[in-house]
Write a structure and sequence with these properties.
This protein is α/β, with parallel strands linked by helices and 384 residues long. The protein has 14 helices and nine strands.
Amino acid sequence: MENFEYNTPNKIVLRDGCTYQVDTYKELKITGNILFVTDRNLINLNIATPVIKVIEKNDANVFVFDQVAPEPKVSTVRELVEFCKNYEITYVVGFGGGSPMDIAKIAAVLLKSPQNIEDIYGVNKVIGDRLPLALIPTTSGTGSEVTPVAVVTSDDGSKSPIVDTHLICDIVLLDAKLTTGLPPKITAATGVDAMVHAIEAYTSGVRKNVISDNLAKKAFVLLFNNIKTATFKGTNIVSRRNMLIGSSLAGLAFANSSVGAVHALSYPLGVSFNLPHGESNALVMIPVMRFNLKKATSLYADLSRIINSEVIFSSDAEAANYLINQIESLIKELNLSTKLSDYNITEKDINTLTTGTLKQSRLLSYNLTKMNETDISNIFKSIL
């Protein structure tokens, strides 16, 4: 077995309704001058405000920054740092999907560090310490609450990842009640994103290890078995809880392994065409899995057998193909698009998408099967 390191948040709390209980914040010492990072939609839907009011009951002053948009830009980080100059922030809470949590992680670093955002792009570039940080996911998809990764769109329009153990938070609060009101399409798309995390972590070309493998397998089972119920029977608390756990386990898996080409191909769909990340993953997931099939056959077969224990397969190849076909059917059942044309993306856009993917050299290097420009272009053409 190869040597590896495994990193995780200090504490993960799973309890339905925990975010609405003042004792939660008291016990975990989430207090002081708190920067609460979220998005305007969660304020408008009255999902964030009740939580803010509960936190304030724990002798806390809460300063709300709600200007985080999907695919957040570096300009948002600069705006947030400027916003915080008016306050002596002592604690950061990120509340929402991946975007608010990513921005909260970056803020916790920059409010304690002499560095600027541009100084920490890349891997292990953070100097010094960060502010105490708690993360509260409201979707079951990104796994950002447990990862050392944050992604922003830089000034030139490219995705700029920040990967550093300083971004691993102190406390994660997993409250399934926060997710019961998610619309079906968002539930489906974010759930597929989490499934991709599990699959890519398990089939990673680098950094794969025994802990990430077992987390990925458990995550995949939970996500695959619960995503339809969570999508179409959204108030089912058991399925919502299992999706939330699965998402976090998948996050822990890829945080200590990696993701690969599905994410590399999905990023330019978000940057250039404003597709939600989960929907872009759903578009490219199946063709990338088929591209990787030759090298991933035994690994896909493992995943197939753990969700189809009653099926006897004659070979790994049969089991692997069965898995891909099941996931393809699942994506369609979830009413997620599998064609670029559904988003008015045409053949003239293939070059833009291919060029954007090639910029994701780190993710492409982690993919199990090496991809060149022609491979990438052909995958996009296959889903026109």
